[in-house]
Automatic annotation (TrEMBL):
The lineage of its organism: Bacteria, Pseudomonadati, Pseudomonadota, Alphaproteobacteria, Rhodospirillales. Pfam families: NeuB (PF03102), SAF (PF08666). InterPro entries: AFP_Neu5c_C_sf, Aldolase_TIM, PseI-like, PseI/NeuA/B-like_N, Pseudaminic_synth_PseI, SAF, SAF_AFP_Neu5Ac, SAF_PseI/NeuA/NeuB. It comes from the Bacteria. The gene is pseI. This is Pseudaminic acid synthase. One of its GO terms (molecular function) is N-acylneuraminate-9-phosphate synthase activity. It comes from Candidatus Terasakiella magnetica. The keyword Transmembrane does not apply. The keyword Iron does not apply.
Length: 349
């Protein structure tokens, strides 16, 4: 599996998780708030901040039909798609300033794109990567357009069947793309933790042989930390500076202290995951002496047979390994032995 690089930061197995702070609609229409979230995310440990580049017109139609009304169990139930996207959109004229602000604070800025005009806009800003949202993963033309930039592409896979994901991967490669990351995701807001299906992460890595991450829409950190333990190489989390004033996405976004804890915990989970390794670790070596081994537990005279009455498996570990007990019991002592003597082959005849 190849390692992907965004702004010279390697992403892949054996690398610390790449932490993406998703700002989305949490600017609340205030560029200063957006800049504040960038600063807080950088301090908390974000590698990147991500925006969403769209207008209401690039996402949907301004139509009165019921198809365009949000229904069901949703934070936005009763609202029209056009109205919601109008409120949540990040103004295009902000992006140059926001990208500069992010780079000033040593985090990589990039965006989810929703049409080819957005890709062209991002290219002019020097975007170093692109993101495809789960709802756009079925738009293979958009994926192909991103691939043709030659930049790394991150694709969320909420709602997707395995076939949907394969179609997206094939579209990316067929268009000449080489650096791809897939994110396990649940596209409900907030997501039900029981529907995280994190075991998809190692399964997707096996199927597609690309770095796999996790886009987390739950209201806790547990799922993202567990995802890293299962091999996630990227974690994406919505972030906000404060619960008030509320935004379209504030209910499932992390506050600065929560995102800081998430970054620290994901790094700890990465180190805990480690690599396949058997035998004592460097810091365990000093404990080997406390393992069980064979010791004389009752004084033995030279020539006396070893027995279960005079030899036992006990701690510490300076004698023969317990697996040798049966062979020791077939022998006799080559010398007088006092209780507490470790059994070694030179005292067994």
């Amino acid at each position: 599996m190849r390692t992907i690089n965004i702004s010279n930061r390697p992403i892949g197995q054996g690398q610390p998780p790449y932490m993406i702070a998703e700002i989305s609609a949490n600017h609340g229409g205030d560029i200063e708030r957006a800049k504040r979230i960038i600063e807080q995310s950088a301090k908390s440990g974000a590698d990147a901040v991500k925006f969403q580049l769209y207008t209401a017109d690039s996402l949907t139609l301004n139509c009165p039909q019921e198809d365009f009304l949000i229904t069901g169990e949703s934070l936005w139930k009763g609202r029209r798609l056009y109205e919601l996207y109008e409120e949540a959109a990040t103004p295009y004229e902000w992006f140059e300033e926001l990208f500069a602000h992010a780079r000033k604070h040593n985090v990589t800025p990039f965006a989810s794109v929703f049409d080819e005009a957005g890709i062209e806009f991002m290219e002019n800003l020097g975007a170093e990567a692109y993101k495809i949202a789960s709802f756009e993963t079925v738009d293979l033309g958009l994926i192909s357009a991103c691939a043709k930039t030659g930049k790394p592409l991150i694709i969320s896979t909420g709602l997707c069947t395995l076939e949907d994901i394969q179609d997206a991967v094939d579209a990316f490669h067929d268009a000449g793309g080489t650096e791809l990351i897939l994110l396990q995701c649940n596209s409900s807001y907030p997501a039900n933790p029981k529907e995280s299906h994190l075991v998809n992460i190692p399964d997707m890595a096996k199927h597609f042989n690309v770095p796999i991450g996790y886009s987390d829409h739950t209201t806790t950190s547990v799922q993202a930390i567990a995802a890293v333990a299962l091999g996630a190489t990227v974690i994406e989390k919505h972030v906000i500076d404060a619960r008030e004033p509320a935004t379209a996405d504030s209910a499932f976004s992390s506050l600065p202290e929560q995102f800081l804890e998430l970054c620290d915990s994901c790094l700890a989970a990465f180190h805990a995951r480690g690599e396949i390794s058997y035998g004592p670790t460097e810091h365990e070596k000093g404990s080997i002496k406390f393992r069980r081994s064979l010791y004389v537990c009752k004084d033995i005279k030279q020539g006396e047979a070893f027995s279960k009455e005079n030899v036992r498996s006990v701690r510490p570990g300076y004698g023969l390994a317990p697996k040798h007990l049966e062979n020791v019991l077939k022998g006799k002592a080559t010398q007088d032995l006092v209780a507490g003597t470790p059994v070694s082959w030179d005292v067994v005849e």
